[in-house]
Amino acid sequence: xxxxxxxxxxxxxxxxxxxxxxxxxxxxxxxxxxxxxxxxxxxxxxxxxxxxxxxxxxxxxxxxxxxxxxxxxxxxxxxxxxxxxxxxxxxxxxxxxxxxxxxxxxxxxxxxxxxxxxxxxxxxxxxxxxxxxxxxxxxxxxxxxxxxxxxxxxxxxxxxxxxxxxxxxxxxxxxxxxxxxxxxxxxxxxxxxxxxxxxxxxxxxxxxxxxxxxxxxxxxxxxxxxxxxxxxxxxxxxxxx
Length: 241
Prior knowledge:
With 241 residues, this protein is of the alpha+beta class. The chain has 4 helices and 10 strands. It has helices at residues 20-25, 124-136, 193-201, 208-222, and strands at residues 50-54, 59-66, 72-79, 83-88, 94-102, 107-111, 114-116, 138-150, 159-170, 187-192. The chain has a 4-stranded mixed sheet with strand order 7-4-9-8, with helices on both faces. Helix 3 crosses helix 4 (208-222). The radius of gyration is 22 Å and the shape is globular.
């Protein structure tokens, strides 16, 4: 009887694409051409932004976009100032996690220090250092760019840069920020990086910057930190106007 499985060494068909050659035929890049997998900005013809709702921090907008072969469409999305987050590692390889209430999801989430880019003219690194000091009472002597991502690119233009911060020291007592609102009762835990990874993979940690940052830090740690980018690395952010 013929087996229902592929032959030894043959990959199973997924989504209608079978052998490796078929995968190559399905796209313009050859299999294994990792350099071709790169996000790029695009300046498609678009009409002016129409404000649907102006919020205290976020705005809801509408815009007509010409997709070329896809036709002319209307898209509604949230305009967001962007944010930074910080994976702070101590000399023992532990990551600092903060427990904070998030009302839209009715949950207390374990997160890394993070905050909005809401100070005019402030660059990304300065914002990250400010958030680390305000939320965790920490200063860092060594900074790198860890990873960048869009939180929900189909619904928002929010972009986040996650930094790696090391060589940590406390903010002097007299200079510490007075935390308010959701930050007033935050809990703090120093968690081994490997344990934080298990928290992500087991479904116990859900905050996006914590998930992305912890997994990126663990990957780069396993590589001996080779591949870390400068804290001033270029940042791909496309804003509709």
